[in-house]
Amino acid sequence: MTEDQSVKPAELACPACGEPVYPGEGFCEACGRRLGDGVAAPAPEPVRACAGCAAPAIDADGYCERCGLRQPAERDHYEIELPGPNGRLLAAGGSDRGKRYSRNEDALALAAHPTGVAAVVCDGVGSSPTPHEASAKAAATGADELTGRLGKGEDFEAATRAALIKAADAVAALAPDPDSAPSCTYVSAVTGPRSVTVGWVGDSRVYWLPTRPAGDGPRAGAEVDTAELAIGDTGASEDTADSAALGPARRLTDDDSWAAIMVERAALTEAEAEAHPNAHVITGWLGADAGEVAPHVRTFTVDGPGAVLVCSDGLWNYLPQAEALVQALADASLDPAGDPLGAVRTLVRRALDAGGRDNITVAVIPVAHPHTEQPR
Amino acid sequence: MSEQPQFGITVDQNKSLPEGASEVHAIVSVEAAGAPAAAAPAGAAEVIIIDTSGSMSYPDSKLRAAIAAAQTAVDTLRDGVLFAVVSGSNTASMVFPQTPRLVPADAGSRHAAKAALKALKAAGGTAIGSWLRLADELFDPYQDGIRHAILLTDGKNQHETPEQLDAALARCSGRFVCDCRGVGTDWEVAELRKVSSALLGSVDIVADPRDLVADFQAMTEAAMGKAVADVALRVWTPQNARLRFVKQVMPSVADLTARRAEAGPQAGDYPLGAWGAESRDYHICVEVPAQPVGQELRAAWVKLVVPGGPGQEAQVLATGNVLARWTDDEAAATKINPRVAHYTGQAELADVIQQGLQARKEGDLATATARLGRAVQLADEAGNDAITAALRKVVDVEDAATGTVRLKRNVDKADEMSLDTTSTKTVRTRKKEG
Ligand SMILES: [Zn+2]
Ligand SMILES: [Zn+2]
Fold first, then answer.
1. Distance CA B418, CA B416 (A)
2. From CA A366, how far away is CA A375, in angstroms rounded?
3. Quick check: A122 pLDDT over 90?
4. Contact A91, A82 (CB under 8 A)
5. Which member of B294, B297, B323 has the closest CB to residue A99?
6. R_g over Cα of chain A
7. Is A290 inside any structural domain?
8. A15 CA → ligand 1 middle, Å
9. Which is higher by pLDDT, A52 or B175?
10. DSSP track, B368-381
11. Looking at B223-308, which runs of residues are DSSP E strands?
């Protein structure tokens, strides 16, 4: 981040995670901590009450002195709200450790850019060393690079690709030696008034969830298979005019995974592949052992109001189909474009209730919604 | 107490619990490293108690060996260590010095003490409680330093009531540490074990009086090696939790559960006595309120402390956490920690040996065979070769793996008593694998 020193002269640090933050930012981009006025001076920790028994006695190791409960770490569960000028949220995100893992190795960053929102979700690869550091580094670096480039008016796809490469380099630099390479997945979504650009390596995903006309129930077969659209990765094209329209609910990314390869080769059905023990083996990641990173980048045209959902596999393992996500939100009478934070909370809760076997991270960005007045 | 050793606590456990489970087990290892042998604390006191009841002269070699052993112990005392020698029969009396007090060890006092020992005669009965009370009186002015006694007897506590002994033990508990030795085979292992465990010491048989000298030297050297006088294991548990037991499991099995002294909110102290360059292991079992899957509790917070007097802050030497984390991962939650399993087996081993020997004494041969058979199996599993060897002097082993044994028809009384005193001695890990 040294080259940005001229733009961001004050190098301040987040009081929670120590990542650099900048004057005027409401939240830390790395961990989502709310930043007060004058972020340089961390506010004194208020006396914390136990999350279990409410005793105001948490010792230095993070355990309650009365009931012994380990208090949730900053990263165990957090929410990020990106407030807009009219008080409504430009975007919301949430991340949870889940029930199986002892720490949250997912990371989430949300940031506003001049014409919309940029979101990055990264999922640490569990078999690598310190995957939580890899994901935090990748999400912070990616979001930082995206907002820097988009702020200078750079094209969405070029910025997406450059940010991913920069994040990949940052993660690769974490490895103390080639045999010990922290690694993670990476997915970004950049929204504008009329388009969405996604970029990814690995199996974290982006979905499109259109706002339904009132009274419109779920339609059978409404899901569009992305493979049929034949848009493919758009390569170096900077022209988004002829990109695919978003249409009904759908997934916008294709996993870099063993399961996806099997489905693509028609060796297995999607259901068979997902049930297979190898389903979660990914074929692309960021890390010193990843070789040359090949980002997938796609752009879609917004043809109606809706929301872009960015998530880790901790959510989509339980709700893999776009329609299932739509249904989960409809069950809770939630329009993700109108209440992104409510949608985030509902989906995180659904994944926890379903077992929470992995870290869960969800970001929701309303697009072309009557209430989302984007700064132009 | 300028040069204290570095203490460390390590906790071995499987913290993963299945949904709804509430019992947490852990092995807490306390280790002191770098205890300076030469620069041990100045404040050390030693009282040597020799049984001079009439039976000690049948045969006379017992008394002669006891005197020789006590003389060696006196020679092993560091210069400056406060000491006294007491003889015990129906009552206790001073051997050296002549008045009830402790004197510093130096060439002159050692010489005088050894001369006084030489003149000892055996007569009268056995009243161990009264001997301990005299030792307690002698230690009384020196409660800050290391206080250690050696008690040698050859008979049963016949000349005072069990209540008198219990009252003496209650008085002396926590006031000094006492290692007990039985010479010959006319004493009761259970009785002397009661004394040694109340006073945080060891109990052993010295079947052959000629072995006494080496044994006394070893005990005195160990006492001189202690660097901290009174340490305790302070165990904090969550509100609504129940501490099921605290057991020492290494170097020997000793249940400390009943020795708890309350130490502030939700915490209790379990006295461990003096500590030198050594390590000991404790098995702790806590019942905690079950939490939802994904939550983690500190099920116990263990600290090695020097408790300090009333109104004084305890000095904390080391700390460790016993944790509980609920998971729906069955494979993780059902794994038993190997050290917990190892020591659980050895605690059971001590129990079944003592039960088996008792049944044998009472003529219940079926129970004796079953318990000692189980003991053979457990000793084999644990790799406790000393106990296996002691068991083989009492039973003929057909198959160690299944615990199939026959009671030997003729068993030497000393072998039976050795098995009893050895039953609580544990080994840290299996020596042989597979
Ligand atoms: Zn932060
Ligand atoms: Zn609490």
1. 5
2. 14
3. yes
4. yes
5. B294
6. 20
7. yes
8. 7
9. B175
10. HHHHHHHHHHHHHH
11. 228-236, 242-250, 254-255, 261-262, 267-275, 279-287, 296-306
Residue A51 CA, ligand 2 centroid: distance in Å: 6
CATH number at residue A116: 3.60.40.10
DSSP A37: S
CB atoms < 10 A from the CB of B413, how many?
12
Mean pLDDT, residues B172-179: 95
Count of structural domains, chain A: 1
User: B22: which 2 tokens?
Assistant: 């509430």
The reply to whether residue B294 touches residue A98, judged by beta carbons under 8 angstroms, is: yes
Domain that holds residue A103: 74-372
Phi, then psi, of A63 in degrees rounded to 5: -105, 145
- Cα-to-chain-centroid distance, residue B410: 30
Distances, alpha carbon B366 to alpha carbons B101, B390, B418, B420, in Å: 53, 20, 22, 19
Tell me which of B22, B235, B239 to substitute to probe the interface with A (most A C-beta atoms closer than 10 Å).
B239
- Distance of CA A274 from the midpoint of ligand 2 (Å): 40
State which residue of chain B sits closest to A53, comparing Cα positions.
B239
Query: In order of start, what are the domains of chain B with their CATH numbers?
Result: 6-36+230-330 (2.60.40.3670), 45-224 (3.40.50.410), 338-433 (1.20.120.1690)
Domain contains A20: no
Query: Is B297 in contact with A98 (Cβ distance < 8 A)?
Result: no
The answer to whether residue B284 neighbours chain A at the CB level (below 8 Å) is no
So what's the pLDDT on residue B348?
96
Give the ipTM of the model, two decimals please: 0.79
Answer whether residue A237 shows pLDDT above 80: no
With tokens 């939490």, the residue in question is B291
Asked if residue A153 is part of any domain, the answer here is yes
Contact indicator for B305, B271 with CB cutoff of 8 Å = no
A225 occurs within a structural domain = yes
pLDDT given at position A277: 82
Residue B218 CA to chain centroid, in angstroms?
Answer: 15
State the DSSP string of B145-208. Answer: SEEEEEEEE-S---SS-HHHHHHHHHHHTTT-EEEEEEESSSS-HHHHHHHHHHTT--EEEE-S
